Batch of 2 targets.
Target 1
Amino acid sequence: MNILTFLGLGQIELMLISAMLLPMLLTLWALIDAIRSEFVKDVNKIVWILVILCVPLAGGILYFIFARKQKLTA
């Protein structure tokens, strides 16, 4: 017996779960990285956290594209 059949999950349910889970994981990853990172200006950290929280999927993507230049390098 398949474990997914046992749980009552079909292909559509799995697609919906993955469609919701992946954006949430990206947002969470971006948020944790923003909180842990040091930025050149302190206000940049607050701005990025607000962007990530207010625009979850796009905010996470934008964070990983543009915030790299604003971080302090160790």
Target 2
Amino acid sequence: MASTRDIRRRIKSVKNTRQITKAMELVAASKMKKAQQAALAGRPYAELMAHMLAALADRVEEAQHPFLVQREVKTRGILLVTTDKGLAGPLNANLFKLVAEIKTPVKYAVIGRKGAQFIARTHRNLLADFTVSDRVAFTEVKVVAEFMVKQYLDGAIDTVEILWPRFRNTLVQVPTLLPLLPLTSVHDVVDDLRSGAGQAAAAGRGLENQMIFEPGPGVVLDALLPLYVNREIYQQVLDAKASEHSARMVAMKTAKDNATNLLGDLTLEYNKARQAAITQEILEIAAAQFAS
């Protein structure tokens, strides 16, 4: 049995660990709530864009836009969204498993240090890596989206896809691969935006036939489709941040609960060791008294 001094040292260490993990749990919970609110705040923007694109859909020749041209896929382009820090449970590992299953030629752009380290460590083709803050400013994500679009238009990649942990709820984050470019049709883009905007999108559909576009529908479509790609990438990065903070909160809560259980076991062990030491001292005193 370990000495009481060693057990006291372990109890102190476990208490410190529990205090740290509890603080990290509270911080992650606060950040998770803010990330969820930020993701919901994008719905009115998606609703308005859906109305405008729906009004444009029947007034333009879709095949003229480079985002709508279907071409042979030789090299895929995937934007991998991971965390900068660890202690987020299996969140990143689940994404990396999905990456390992991809056997076709791929060039990666990465948001997050963990993803960049994995791509470099496994000798995959890394185009660029980016970092974004916890608040996820649109200007930060716009740089990433513009980089991916430029690579697509230059022919370096034939698709633009995003791989991120989709936020379902606090306990469930699902690794998801979403194709962005090339787009199938403007109508599919409208359906996607409306599904993201929710029921509120149906309320304003009567306004679509009343819209007038200047200088012309084609020019407006050329401006809106890049905005759609930027919006989709921004929305999924917000979603990934909500997943990150949720996974970290659950991991820290589990660590805190384990520390509490271990603390109980150590306290019981300490009391037993202390009782055994006291009993031993009493026996030695009694033996010395008897011997004298």
